[in-house]
């Protein structure tokens, strides 16, 4: 059995503050009480519940299977020698991984003023609930999860956690209604599969998605496409090592962006807002160049479906309707003007293995320091504040 005794590094020192920071890609290991008192009474005895795994870790029992956050998803503040894929127990990880008051302390320690936090137990886009054998149960779980996120995760510290909802993938009409209802309750974003066809749903170019897309556009709800949100990470072979898979994350963002562009989503919905998480920015100049080249050649051909707008190019909509987030892209940052100074945001990826925590401030001082001050401030804070309409952030992090 795996050793589940606590194994944490010494508490890090708080670094000097250089920038106000919003992280647009972090994660939560859900606490034990997500569904308690939040799911419809008729489903209370069938809601996900924590049970002990054969490894000694904890998993969520749901229908005939289990869901859990891999131990690799909760490694902040742990020595690399203790990292593993097996399920974890709450007592062996930093409390900030799963408890909101401790999370805010860890954000303060890192100089992160606000965080967009993706789910773990049910997949980034809630795909596990969407695949429920009983759709009514699955939908009830989605609604209960959103209620927990709003009340317990985002609610205690207004402005510090950007409300991010799950939606109901099997029915875009229901999804549209949920987006509108959640927007009225304060949600600013929705996590959605980057390639829904990978989950057996229609591809994003299909008309069936129009009610959902229209609801997102009209409510200014940002559609967050996290790498792997469709249960698929671009890969080259079965059983590829973790290092290969994570090295390919930027390629996944490239694929997702071009899929949505050539589905004409930004043409049909000109005010839609799409954020690509954990894909970096290094691929963006290449995508802009390639889109321009393709439009001048095969993309303008009457064969198949040509680009429908003579006054707006595919590269135009990539810079108008998409936002990109960086962990650490030192070679590409000098190309910020080509990418768009208003389109680049930052992610700390807490508490995953790629996270910049607890050294976000020193990293940004090194990477953003050579840039014009106004551009650096946009990347660290301003672009995300504008995109997610974060108008109530506390100005004094040291309080």
Structural overview:
The protein has 399 residues and is α/β, with parallel strands linked by helices. The chain has one domain: Alpha-Beta Barrel (TIM Barrel). 33% of the residues lie in helices and 12% in strands. The chain contains 13 helices and twelve strands. The strands form three sheets. Strands 7-8-9-10-11-12 form a six-stranded parallel β-sheet. Strand 7, helix 4 and strand 8 form a beta-alpha-beta unit. The protein is globular. The termini are far apart.
CATH homologous superfamily descriptor: Metal-dependent hydrolases
By oligomeric state, this entry counts as: single chain
Low-confidence stretches: 394-399
Number of domains: 1
CATH architecture field: Alpha-Beta Barrel
* Rg from Cα: 21 Å
Lateral strand order in the biggest sheet: 7-8-9-10-11-12
Kindly identify the CATH topology: TIM Barrel
- Helix-strand topology string: EEEEHEHHEEHEHEHHHEHHEHEHH
The level of helicity is: 25-40%
Mean pLDDT: 93
Based on DSSP secondary structure assignment, what is the total number of beta strands?
Answer: 12
| Number of helices in the DSSP assignment | 13
Amino- and carboxy-terminal Cα gap: 44 Å
Shape by Cα distribution: globular
